[in-house]
């Protein structure tokens, strides 16, 4: 079981299951690109993914590395449903890929499920933003060496 969903009631898991499919992605595969439509999310079972952010003049800056037991993607939950960060597979992954539109429909149908999933993904959002802030401060706290 995955930490994000492992303790959900069986009835909710049965409702989520039709919107998920197992996937395998090789290293180098880009799962998401910043500012493109966010149409899915992933629960990682193995492998690694890096989260990146395009910074003008610096290119794609790696913010965080995610491994087994983590969740990739939260932008699907917040309109206008566009990726806030990019994500690239760095070590082949096995994951469950969820269709975001289907999960949003379930959330709209069931207030209790919606509150629970929203709270769980809010934790993911907070972790990603905290890590991004620390990484960017580290990059820009000191001027680049120009010698």
From TrEMBL:
Q: Which InterPro entries match?
A: cNMP-bd_dom, cNMP-bd_dom_sf, RmlC-like_jellyroll
Tell me the protein's name: Cyclic nucleotide-binding domain-containing protein
A Pfam family (short name) is cNMP_binding
CDD domains from the entry? CAP_ED (cd00038)
Where the record annotates domain Cyclic nucleotide-binding, the positions are 4-124
């Amino acid at each position: 079981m995955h930490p994000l969903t492992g303790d959900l009631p069986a009835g909710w898991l049965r409702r989520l299951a039709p919107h998920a499919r197992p996937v395998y992605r090789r290293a180098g595969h880009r799962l998401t690109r910043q500012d493109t439509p966010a149409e899915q999310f992933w629960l990682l079972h193995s492998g690694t993914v890096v989260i990146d952010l395009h910074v003008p003049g610096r290119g794609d800056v790696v913010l965080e590395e995610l491994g087994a037991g983590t969740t990739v993607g939260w932008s699907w939950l917040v309109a206008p449903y566009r990726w806030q960060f990019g994500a690239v597979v760095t070590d082949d992954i096995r994951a469950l890929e969820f269709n975001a539109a289907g999960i949003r429909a379930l959330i709209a149908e069931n207030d209790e499920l919606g509150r629970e999933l929203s709270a769980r993904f809010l934790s993911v959002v907070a972790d990603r933003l905290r890590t991004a802030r620390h990484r960017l401060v580290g990059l820009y706290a000191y001027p680049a060496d120009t010698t």
